[in-house]
Design a protein that fits this description.
Blueprint: E1 3-4, H1 10-19, H2 26-36, H3 50-59, E2 60-61, E3 67-72, E4 76-82, E5 88-94, E6 101-104, E7 107-108, E8 126-127, H4 130-144, E9 150-153, H5 163-174, E10 186-190, H6 194-200, E11 208-212, H7 218-224, H8 233-247, E12 251-257, H9 265-275, E13 280-286, H10 300-312, E14 317-319, H11 333-341
Length: about 350
């Protein structure tokens, strides 16, 4: 069975050529064709001899993800891609003044069961391959006609539930022979899968880490996020402290403000006490309401009070600008809509 060429790390491709008794330097040529020259056919890789091009076509597939659907406004562009097995997956381009960022999906569905998450309604069918993650980026770049400098693994799926393929994806897009993205331009977001956090800290070129917290006590967090029943707040805090210490990086704490649930000033006080010793940025997020949930976003007034309360503790707090609510930009909304229409 053929393997996706976009799932191959440079090291793996190097080993492939070595196994063929070919000069391993050919791996650099292939990466250049794939990621710099955006080649879509092995036969067009002119500086490789014919026998090598024939072998590549025999052993690998080279397929760009087709865009099934696209919705765009001034702030975001949402893509629905078709996978080779007929399923679909989403990515969202967020347009920032400092440079665009693509929010990439890592799984086809998600089993984490967070009650506020649209993508969690669609249970995991399988993990995405590294090549399918790379494909989201390449297809979006081709559509925009420009490189996208920042990545966030915050789309459909839990990245650390697909650890090996996620790491291969990061290795591919950061490789100096190809896209050469800086590790600090990539953020991996987790709902709190502690073993993944602990393992991820020892990678040689650490990436940014974002952790979805959303509650400052175990009882509430377990209601909102079932993962907390397996890895409670103490476990999570310990793993984050280790990550921050090992990598010397500031962690981003994602906190979704839900009206009447976790947005009281007492909640802000508890959050401040929990995080005061952690090197982190707290990112407050307005909830993107959907028709499938009774959850409601905090009022602007309560959001501002919560924000100011945290600032009084000397914490670094940001309020995420709302992007794309009118075009169903929450993770999983476009895919869910497409599945309902078919």
């Amino acid at each position: 069975m053929k393997k996706e060429i976009y799932s191959c790390t440079f090291t793996q491709l190097d080993g492939y050529f070595e196994g063929m008794a070919e000069n391993p330097a050919k791996a650099a040529l292939v990466f250049d064709w794939l990621y710099r020259q955006k080649c879509l056919c092995f036969a067009d890789m002119e500086d490789l001899k014919a026998s090598v091009r024939t072998a590549l076509a025999r052993d690998f597939t080279l397929r760009r993800l087709p865009i099934l659907q696209q919705q765009e406004n001034e702030q975001v562009c949402k893509y629905l891609f078709e996978l080779e097995d007929g399923h679909s997956i989403e990515a969202v381009l967020m347009k920032h003044g400092y440079g665009h960022a693509l929010c990439v999906s890592t799984q086809l569905g998600c089993n984490m069961g967070c009650i506020f998450c649209e993508s969690g309604r669609l249970k995991k069918l399988r993990n995405l391959s590294a090549g399918e993650m790379v494909g989201q980026l390449l297809a979006a770049q081709a559509e925009r006609g420009e490189n996208i400098p920042n990545l966030v693994l915050m789309g459909i799926g839990e990245p650390f539930d697909n650890y090996e393929q996620v790491c291969s994806f990061i290795d591919i897009v950061t490789d100096v022979h190809g896209l050469d993205m800086g590790p600090r331009h990539i953020t991996v977001s987790t709902c709190g899968l502690v073993p993944g956090i602990e393992r991820f800290q020892f990678r040689s070129r650490p990436n940014n880490l974002a952790v979805s917290l959303h509650a400052a006590n175990d009882a509430l967090r377990s209601q909102l996020m079932p993962i907390n029943r397996a890895y409670n707040l103490q476990d999570l805090m310990d793993s984050m402290q280790k990550y921050a210490s090992t990598t010397r990086q500031k962690i981003t704490i994602e906190y979704l403000l839900l009206r009447g649930i976790n947005d009281d000033l007492d909640d802000a006080d508890a959050l401040a006490r929990l995080l005061r010793q952690l090197n982190c940025t707290i990112n407050l997020i307005p909830y993107n309401e959907t028709s499938h949930s009774k959850l409601r976003r905090s009022t602007p007034q309560q959001t501002r009070r919560f924000f100011e309360r945290l600032k009084r503790y000397g914490l670094y707090v940001t309020l995420r600008k709302e992007l794309g609510a009118e075009i169903h930009a929450a993770c999983g909304q476009l895919r869910a809509q497409q599945m309902a229409d078919t």
